[in-house]
Design brief:
about 120 residues; mainly alpha; 6 helices; about 0% strand
């Protein structure tokens, strides 16, 4: 079940990322924290796994060596992001600029508010 959930989450985050042009971590870290019940370090380390080639390899290794990254979930999420990013990017081309900008703002604001007010 965790495999399916990780792939579905990756596809959803990929769609959002492709649609509004944000890095997946802005959406994925809160999902891993709340949905996968990871602590903040584990959520960030696992998110870096999707950035491995080439930008996140050294950061990921530090998190992984400290026990703060789940490689399996990270790779499954990366697979989902690969597929979801394709569809999100395709759909974004059909959305008017003003709507796309507002969706982007709502995604960032909702994520920020949830993380700020969470105890």
């Amino acid at each position: 079940m965790i495999i399916l959930w990780a792939i579905v989450t990756g596809v959803a985050v990929g769609i959002i990322s492709g649609l509004v042009g944000i890095a997946g971590g802005a959406v994925l870290v809160p999902i891993l924290y709340y949905g996968f019940k990871m602590n903040q370090h584990m959520a960030q380390g696992t998110t870096i796994a999707i950035l491995l080639p080439p930008t996140g390899l050294l950061a990921f290794l530090k998190y992984y060596k400290a026990g703060n990254a789940d490689l399996k979930i990270g790779l499954l999420l990366a697979l989902g992001l690969f597929v979801g990013g394709y569809f999100g990017g395709m759909w974004a081309q059909k959305v008017p600029d003003v709507i796309l900008r507002k969706v982007f703002a709502v995604v960032l604001a909702a994520t920020a508010l949830e993380m700020f007010f969470q105890k």
